[in-house]
Amino acid sequence: MTRLGILGGTFDPPHYGHLILAELAADSLTLDRVLFAPAADPPHKGAPRASAEQRTALVERAIAGNPRFALSRVDLDRPGPHYTVDMLRLLRQEFPGAELVFLIGGDSLRDLPMWSRPGELIQLARLGVMRRPGSALNLARLERDIPGIRARVDWIDAPQIDISATGIARRVSAGLSIRYQTPDAVRAYIEAHNLYRNDPETVTSP
Asked: How many domains does the chain have?
């Protein structure tokens, strides 16, 4: 059976942290492919700084050259509201014979009871959870809130990677280098399209 990892997010912009975690997940969980699924309009976040098409172009450049990575427009090419459970249902229809593994961090697992229809979500996909050093989660509480979740979690031991999309945008806005934080092709696109410059949300000290 084909095993597909799904890594969602705004990718505003994508960076080496995303790529490292996706590669670790592919190895740890024996995934045949990891789909990068840029979010169109995530209900729990503010509006992305770059447009959907710009973020798509950034992801395409970030994952180029890795045959295990692919772009999915499943969240971009559908009407809202954009809940993860609906995205996973569409992916199940697109890949009917595959086992889906939704990749998230431990903080997202902790907050999963507040997501839309979490019980349905864990039936559509297993959860590949990045477990960072020193982190702890109350699985008993999660099991009470979402019965059956224990059996649907696969753990991925992941290093602490202190790179964030907000931090990169803030550095660009401040005129600072982002080399070695994101692939050169992503950096070149950001520069060519003047992304994240003079952004009122990021004009603070880096």
From this structure: 1
**Does the predicted TM-score (pTM) go above 0.85?**
yes
Band (pLDDT 50/70/90 cuts) for residue 206 is very low
Domain span at residue 152 reads: 3-162
Q: With the C-alpha atoms ordered 182, 187, 190, 194, is the resulting torsion angle positive or negative?
A: positive
Q: Quickly count: other Cβ atoms within 10 Å of residue 41's Cβ.
A: 15
The reply to whether 177 falls in a domain is no
Residue 181 maps to a domain:
no
CATH number (domain holding residue 141)? 3.40.50.620
Average pLDDT over every residue of 196-205: 58
Q: What is the rounded distance in angstroms from the CA atom of residue 151 to the CA atom of residue 153?
A: 6
Q: Cα 178 vs. chain centroid, distance in angstroms?
A: 20
Distance, first Cα to last Cα, the chain: 45
Residue 202 has pLDDT above 60, yes or no: no
Q: Is residue 82 part of a domain?
A: yes
Residue 194, domain member (yes or no):
no
- pLDDT tens profile 18-28: 999 999 999 99
